[in-house]
Amino acid sequence: MGDQALPFKIHPEHFVFAGVHGEQEVMELIGEYEQPTYQKIFISLDVEKPVVPDADTKISMAGDTVTLMSDPSLDIKMYGMHQFKMKKGGLRIKLGVFPQKQPQARWYSVTKNT
Q: Going by C-beta distance under 8 Å and a sequence separation of 6 or more, which residues neighbour residue 64?
């Protein structure tokens, strides 16, 4: 079944990953909210991207979120984008986070060597 810990290695700020009916439920720590957020993520390869993918990106996907928390003020209404890049000896993933409350994008890079 592969490395079941891989999502947590790629996203160390995530506490929960659950695939539910083709969607994802994620609990993660996003700095400006000062506590973990629990959300459902709707991801697609075909959705309009918030920025043009980098020239070396082989696959990109993006999606938006809806809160699963009981306090509606914690609904971060985040939009995310992942760019997958094949590199010598491994895979590089560029992760973009676009919270509506702070529209300045934040980008993270993760490298997974094979």
A: 41, 42, 77, 78, 79, 80
What are the residues whose beta carbons fall under 8 Å from the beta carbon of 109, sequence distance 6 or more? 92, 93, 94, 95
How far is it, in rounded angstroms, from Cα 111 to Cα 93? 6
Q: How far apart are CA 69 and CA 108, in angstroms?
A: 25
- Residues 33-62 have a mean pLDDT of 83
Q: Please name which of 39, 89, 81, 37 lies closest in space to residue 63, comparing C-alpha atoms.
A: 81
Structure-token match 């209404």, residue found: 77
Which residue type is seen at 97? V
- Whole-model pTM? 0.66
Q: How crowded is residue 50: how many other Cβ atoms within 10 Å of its Cβ?
A: 14
Hey, what are 49's tokens?
Answer: 């991207």
pLDDT confidence of residue 114: 47
